[in-house]
Design a protein that fits this description.
Length: 402
């Protein structure tokens, strides 16, 4: 039992939990620069390659709705070991198949595996820590997680250029194998008291959480903030290679730069958490909309890689600000049901994101900077509407208290 372990072992487990966080970003993003190469190698339309990401995100989201409750019932340790094993096997199989259907199926398996790892890791911190220390750790989640989107496409671009697109999945095998070895040697169960699965109680628990309007609106903000980032990830590689005629290495550098924007957004939020609602989130979301409109206007006269990535950097920074702000507050709504709440939140965020990506995939080819900007604008409009509704709800609650 980890709660009864030595302080040194708990510190080691905590450190490795942070090391594991970028894995979900790597599984999502490492092969993004290889999208054009995969389409050519497998003789597929770009929409079919994008669906390998959508199938992963949808699986990742839906499975989190159930995983949280399961790991609250059976514990964290054994599900994590199983998940890492599935991730290793599925990555190896993807690297040895040329069937896009089989790749999508295996990405569904990876979505389930990563959801187990993510929900169990979130719950581990709630199991081991409390109070300000827990809140401090939670505020670092987005910052540490962003190492994945920062490094993964950069590394993936080089792996694809030096070897081939399959090398991306060999890297995931190596990463997951290292984590699995650590879990076997040093890991352990962290939950203090396992909860029996009771369908009626579970449904009532989900009902209670879903009736919390602030919690649900926060999830929608998280979903659309992440959708803005994923929009570039699924369309940018094709624009950069086909419209601007750069290689997968350049795609990797661009996503590396934009990954830093997400991390910067997280650091900015840590300094701004004490602010009131309007300066903390309303002002940033309006600034983001202004930048997107500016990108649309500039695109009428000039379109190039530097303009697109430059505007995207600041647009994504603001998405990082919004995501970190609402993630930190949403994780603290239901501390007694950390696994279930974390799973519900993460699941719904990725369902929103995967549905947004699916709509982008079927809306037609995004071949230009302006095509990207228009889709940014749609997601930004949703964010503004949600924020204004939250602001109104907050004012009503404040008046009722007075």
């Amino acid at each position: 039992m980890l709660r009864e372990a030595s302080a040194h072992r708990i510190k080691l487990v905590t450190f490795m939990a942070f090391v594991s966080m970028p894995l979900s970003g790597f599984v999502t993003d490492i092969y993004l620069p290889s999208f054009p190469a995969m389409a050519k190698s497998l003789h597929l339309h770009e929409r079919d390659i994008q669906l390998t990401l959508t199938s992963y995100l949808l699986s990742y989201g839906i499975s989190q709705l159930f995983i949280g409750n399961i790991i609250d019932s059976i514990g964290r340790y054994r599900p994590k070991v199983l998940a890492l094993t599935l991730l290793i096997l599925s990555s190896l199989l993807i690297a040895h198949t040329d069937s896009v259907f089989f790749i999508c199926l295996l990405r569904v398996v990876q979505g389930v595996a990563i959801s187990i790892l993510v929900v169990a890791t979130r719950a581990l911190f709630v199991d081991l820590y409390a109070g300000e220390r827990l809140k401090n750790y939670l505020s670092y989640f987005t910052i540490v997680w962003s190492c994945g989107p920062i490094l993964a496409p950069f590394l993936g671009g080089y792996l694809e250029k030096i070897f081939n697109w399959q090398a991306n999945f060999y890297f995931l095998t190596f990463y997951a194998s290292g984590l699995l070895l650590f879990e076997i040697l040093y890991g352990g169960e962290s939950i203090a008291e396992k909860k029996k699965i009771n369908l009626r109680d579970n449904l009532n628990l989900y009902k209670m959480m879903l009736q919390n309007r602030r919690f649900i609106l926060g999830i929608l903000v998280l979903g659309f903030s992440y959708s803005i980032v994923m929009l570039f990830n699924i369309t940018g590689p094709f624009i950069i290679e086909n419209a601007f005629h750069f290689s997968s290495v350049t795609i990797g550098y661009c996503t590396l730069i934009l990954g830093f924007s997400w991390m910067i957004g997280g650091f900015i939020t840590k300094k701004r958490m004490h602010l009131d609602f309007v300066p903390r989130v309303i002002a940033p979301v309006l600034l983001q909309a202004f930048l997107i409109i500016a990108l649309m206007v500039v695109g009428i006269f000039q379109q190039n890689l530097y303009i697109m990535v430059g505007f995207a950097f600041f647009i994504h920074t603001i998405s990082g600000v919004l995501f970190t702000s609402f993630f930190t507050t949403s994780m603290l709504f239901f501390p007694k049901h950390a696994g279930t709440a974390g799973g519900l939140m993460g699941g719904m965020v990725y369902i929103v994101t995967s549905l947004s990506n699916f709509i982008v995939a079927i809306s037609g080819k995004v071949t230009t900077q302006n095509g990207l900007a228009w889709r940014y604008f749609i997601f930004s409009t949703f964010l503004i509407i949600i924020m204004l509704f939250m602001w109104k709800l907050q004012k009503v609650n404040a008046e009722q208290k007075n």
